Amino acid sequence: MLLKTEKPEMILRQLEPEDIYNLYNWTNKPEIASFFVFSRLPGSIEKTKKFLNSQLEGDPNNIHLVIEKLEPKEFIGVISLKNINWIDRNAEYAIVITDKKNMGKGYAKAASLAILKYAFLTINLERVYLNVLSTNLRAINFYERIGFRKEGILRRHVFKEGEYVDLLWYGILKSECLELLSNGL
């Protein structure tokens, strides 16, 4: 799968075997991994290989795409539609930009708009949702800017770096996203 974005200098592409070290390295960066619910450092190369192999074999319920800059070729991050529920027409969204030098340059927005268009217009989902730690203010602001709405709070749900943190749930409906896109988001 290959998705073009509003930024001609970048694409979203399928994971490849050569991505193993990029995946392993960012999951072990404390400044990145500290914002993820699943992260319990250190990660292992074996766990990363298992994840990558499951994706290379083709998992119809999870789509993980590399955010890649074309010139010069650079692995910028990963964007996902996970836990796709084909009956209820919903999926969980996730994104990571793996290096601070690539943050604030519009890559996350372009990748997110491309995958949301894919979710709602190509595979006909009705709802896309996400969860985020309440301490990840940069991500929360970003999600709200691209149309996600807060739907719930799981209070003191995650034990992270010595303290309990709230887990926030956000969602966006197909009709909401299409309206935002038609208004030039």
Give me some keywords for this one.
31% helix; eight-stranded mixed beta sheet; globular; Aminopeptidase; 6 helices; alpha+beta; 185 residues
What is the overall shape?
globular
Low-confidence runs of at least 5 consecutive residues: none
CA-based gyration radius: 16 Å
Q: Quick one: CATH class?
A: Alpha Beta
- Helix/strand-derived class? alpha+beta
Mean pLDDT, to the nearest integer, reads 92
Oligomer: single chain
Ends: how far apart?
24 Å
User: How many domains make up the 3D coordinates?
Assistant: 1
Estimate the strand proportion: 35-45%
User: What is the fourth-level CATH superfamily?
Assistant: Gcn5-related N-acetyltransferase (GNAT)
Largest sheet composition? 8 strands, mixed
How many H/I helices? 6
Number of strands: 8
Order of helices and strands: EEHHHEEEHEHEEH
The CATH architecture category equals 3-Layer(aba) Sandwich
The name CATH uses for the topology is Aminopeptidase
**Cross-sheet strand order for the largest sheet:** 1-2-3-4-5-6-8-7
Question: In percent, how helical is the residue content?
Answer: 25-40%
Organism: Kosmotoga arenicorallina S304
Protein name: N-acetyltransferase domain-containing protein
GO molecular function, one term: acyltransferase activity, transferring groups other than amino-acyl groups
Explained architecture:
The chain has 185 residues and is of the alpha+beta class. The protein contains 6 helices and 8 strands, in the order E-E-H-H-H-E-E-E-H-E-H-E-E-H. The protein is 31% helix and 35% strand. The longest helix is centred in the middle third of the chain and has 16 residues, at 107-122. The chain starts with a strand and ends with a helix.
